[in-house]
């Protein structure tokens, strides 16, 4: 009896090679659409669609909603050590973020720092009827004037918190004004975006903790004229509760997000009421 052939055929081999090329490209991007992948790889769109569907079914690629871009998941780690896609903290937060948008209708975003900025890694804009932009995934936000950036800075230890710029050109704020904003974020438990950056919308954000370390921030964006101070405080409390839920999921998984800072904060830092006030303390070393 003859041995079964191990030859998979040239077409099958080409399909596998193309799929790995797609994974290699997508793992180096924050996210990408079918059209962008098709252009970059010079593959026909139908081919890209088939490959993406297969990878989504296998758990290697994630799409937030039918209208959003695609990104790789942490399952890609099983194929090698070069993972640079959706971190475990994002995967834990996706379900919570999606649920918040379903309840509140406003778009929710999750961000992590990268150098002198923080980057939006996930957004529910495609699922929100009040979306203010087509997409914000991959958008860089300034640390000292964005809600996400302030929420991150507020929960870094003094030894890791950078000094503010002497003058913020985008908003005209001095270092003293920036530090006042940061103190409000520390005392209140949530951060508010500096309105001068975009007068039509506003954002608030809170920290996400894992094993006592701040690993990401959870934010919500809304039209500035629609919600008053009381409504903003209620949304901030809901964000804090959601961030606590995400942190609990991460703690149960025991997965420490390697791409995030290892800044230590009290375990109850994210559970504090938004009406609490702390004592005066230095804001940077």
Can you describe what's shown?
By secondary structure, the chain is an alpha+beta fold. Helix 2 (34-41) packs across helix 3 and helix 4 (88-104) runs antiparallel to helix 7. It is built from seven helices and ten strands. The protein starts with 9 loop residues before the first helix and ends in a 32-residue tail after the last helix. It has helices at 10-27, 34-41, 45-58, 88-104, 147-153, 175-188, 229-253, and strands at 61-63, 70-72, 108-114, 117-123, 140-142, 167-168, 173-174, 191-192, 201-210, 213-223.
What is the structure about, briefly put?
With 285 residues, the chain is of the alpha+beta class.
Average per-residue pLDDT, rounded, comes to 81
Total individual domains:
2
Element order, helices and strands? HHHEEHEEEHEEHEEEH
CATH architecture of the largest domain: 2-Layer Sandwich
Number of strands: 10
Report strand %.
Answer: 15-25%
Strand order, largest beta sheet: 5-4-3-10-9-8
Structural class, from helix and strand content?
alpha+beta
Region (Disordered): 261-285
Protein name: Helix-turn-helix domain-containing protein
Keywords: DNA-binding, Transcription, Transcription regulation
Domain IclR-ED: 75-252
